[in-house]
Design brief:
Strand content: 15-25%
Helix content: 25-40%
Distance between the termini: 41 Å
Radius of gyration: 19 Å
Order of helices and strands: EHEHEHEHHEEHEHEHEHHE
Structural class: alpha/beta
Number of strands: 10
Length: 275
Amino acid sequence: MTEILVVANRTIGGRPVLERVRELAKEPGTRFRLVVPAQRPGSGLVIYDDAVRDAAQVRVDLAVTFLRREGIQVEGEVGDEDPFHATMDAIGERRPDQVIVSTLPATSSGWMRRDLIERIQQATGLPVEHVVVDLSEGLPMQTTLVIANKTSGGHELIDRLKEMAPDPQQHVFILVMPLSDGGGRASWEARGRLATVLDRLRNEGLVAAGMVGDPDPYTAAVNALDLFTVSSVVISTLPEEKSGWTRARLVERVRSASRVPVEHVVVPIDDQVTA
């Protein structure tokens, strides 16, 4: 059995990484361990530590689900915010045979400016392969950010997401559920609703992962746009007369802040399926 450690953050879904994993997976007995450092983005709004870690977990969940559907043996986890420490922790726990580190191009990669590849090689003596992913070229699959809360389990929304992904292996969904007011109980309820909806999406054959977002839906959406590389956004609300998000012009404001298409899905009150 050969174990290969893959360390990546925003580039985890990039075509060069996926193609390299697929190529190596052709060798019988090869398994992979993905580590995504919980690293804070370099720009954007103030994002809390929990959100940074949740975003890293979303990347892990999507990558593991995506690769397992291709029959690849893979596990994943969130690592330390420092990519060197995250890599060394993973190597110390279960020494792999090889390490792959994926970064952005040199002009925009903080990991390369910190000589991450060379430091791992010198500290471990393991073969370390460097895979560069240019996110300006886009990801090999469509990625849709879904902003929803009370309507997240509505039939109208679920049906629209299924319609968007006729080939589920070519489309992934990131569900961000803004936290309602109410403190700890609201957080518990939101996470329960999130887990229920994600289970339903996966049972429908979709590749999906998600996280609880900022209580303000606009902040939650803008933070997610900063944390993830997406090709489209879907915002789900109640009908206008019942929707505070609509009255606050959420869809229009996110459209102004986004460089990708933003779609509005209205879910009737009697069409909701919640946790």
